[in-house]
Amino acid sequence: MSPDRWILLAPILWLLAIVLGCAGRGRALARAALAAGAAVVVLVALWQLPGGMPWPIATWPGVIGSRFQLAPDALWLLLFGAIAAFFATALGTPSRNWRSWVAGAGLSMLGALGCFGLQDVTGFLVAWEVMSLGGAVLLIGERLGTMRNGRHLLFMLALLEVGAVALLAAMLMLAHAAGSLDFAAFDNVLSPHAHGHALWIGVLLLIGFGAKLGLLPFYEWYPGAYGQGSGASGALLSGIVLNAAFFALERAFTLWLPGGGLLAIVTVIAGVSSAILAVLYAFQEDDWRRLLAFSSAENAAIAITLLGAVQVFRGEGLLALASLGFVVALLHLAGHALAKGALMLAADGAFHATGSYAVSQHGLLRRSPWLYGLGVVFAGMSLAAMPPQAGFVSEWYTFQTLFQGFHLDGLAGRLTLALAGAGMALTAAIAFATFVKLVGLGTLGRPSSNDAAPGVERSHAWSCGLLGLLVLALAVGMPWWLQGLDGAMASHFAGQGSAALHNGPILVPLTDTFAFISPTLLVVVCPLLALLPLALLLRARWRLHGRRAPVWYGGCAPPPRGTTTALTFSNAMRTFYSFVYRPASEVRHEHSGSPYFVRQVHHRADVSPLFEAAVFRGPTRCVQWLAQKLGALQSGNMNIYLGLVGLLLVLILAVALI
């Protein structure tokens, strides 16, 4: 079997895992099948990059699509999503109810693979629905959230179905224009001057794919759904599933729709607004999974912003700058999949050790293998855009792409990209504070004397550490990794290549006269530069003998532990941005017999969802009112049923007579 056919082993292994999960037998074998399928995908993607899979694989016509073919950009996103999926499925869920999790994981990855490779409308929409169903099955059986009534999962499915309807409408409009259901016929089917038609289709595609990517207002299902599952589930949803959704969106925008126009500006505005709001809400969370869920929406929004910038540049024929934004979006989601996978598995490690996903100071790093701390710090640095990690490289490239707006002739495009750069700066600043909070409060600190929780298990520590090292490897090897995107650039922007994005180990945004960095050299130079302050510190310790003294607490008695809480850390931001958060605070007292003697004080502080009341509550109440009114049809009253049958006969006779 040729190397491009090896990819068929992955769905076979995942189907085996689904069968084992449904049968409730062979937990270890089911996890091994899931992980082996992800490993096959990783090996095939590494083998086929940068050229893609040149020979399409035939499937069953009319059932799951007529062709299966992985483009170079699909292989790139699939590669890094599958790496995180390998570690997540190998470790599995910490929940005892593993059967539904195994089946859901298999369905999610099977659907994601179909979204990457199936080449017609019918097959793609089936794969999209399988991926959505798999996500729900993945989460519904774990029951690791504080609220276990299923409301959050129903909310997720409802919003995803809104997106599915929008996708169906957009693809039917494209199929009508192309006269075919095959994606190959969609390429450049719309005239460059048909901006009105392209705007409606583009908005429908943004709604459809944005429902899964967490574009506003759809990101509000993220924390509730992620908070019901484990970190392993979050690693799958934030990695291979999110990458599949973005691949479908970027293929539609760069190959099917013309560049420029109002759609490009709308895409940039939606991406920037979503990134800012998502990271603001991430900063206020005190649960590992909910915080990382909002962070996933933020990073997806950054990639969508870059996609909008690509459309702006395409509209004015600046294909070199368009290819820059396209590559940066792919780089950003590659680093995000690895870093988010590391932190999601770190969350599971914290749950195993403490029994909770709360972001609080338990001193995990003091009692865990060193690889756990390494993975958490490296992944947190990447998502906070700190050098020399992969997130720093992709966000640096993001700013360089947006700063190139001065090449545009139109005032609207220049102003849009300038404001987008300011929005990205605000997003990066809040993201930095968010991951200082997560890493600092979630892993550091000195445990109390009665906190006897053990350290993180070795399996989670090793998985987290290896993913963290892969984040660094992606950044350090970026000049060589870029060569894997040559095929993607050539297929979307003829004549463009990655050679213009690096000069040896130096990374440049098309030209080294504009800006440059080198994470490859930083890894070598920074330890060498650190030798000087370390030498001065050792000399000072040798010559000057230090004296320890207690910390002064303003004349007050020192507290037993110098710790802080997630609420205290984020309260200043909550107060400053109260017009966004609309914070609520409640204090409740419990008395012991007499109202003068307080036994306990309960304090609850929360923030309100921005779109829940304005967008979702109205339709929800309408559906509930309609269901209440139609409830009489299920009363069991025979007279009502006979009346309905009689009314139906009258209508049939009326239609026949007409």
UniProtKB/TrEMBL annotation:
Major place of residence: membrane
Xref: InterPro entries: ComplexI-like_HydComp (IPR052175), NADH_UbQ_OxRdtase (IPR003918), ND/Mrp_TM (IPR001750)
Topology of this chain in the membrane: Multi-pass membrane protein
Subcellular location as annotated: Cell membrane; Membrane
Pfam families with a match to the protein in the record: Proton_antipo_M
Domain of life: Bacteria
Domain NADH:quinone oxidoreductase/Mrp antiporter transmembrane: 120-404
Name listed for the protein in its UniProt record: Proton-conducting transporter membrane subunit
Residues annotated as transmembrane: 6-23, 30-49, 74-93, 100-119, 125-141, 153-178, 198-219, 231-249, 261-284, 291-313, 319-339, 370-391, 411-440, 461-482, 514-538, 638-657
Keywords: Cell membrane, Membrane, Oxidoreductase, Transmembrane, Transmembrane helix
Organism the protein comes from: Rhodanobacter lycopersici
Record carries keyword Transmembrane helix: yes
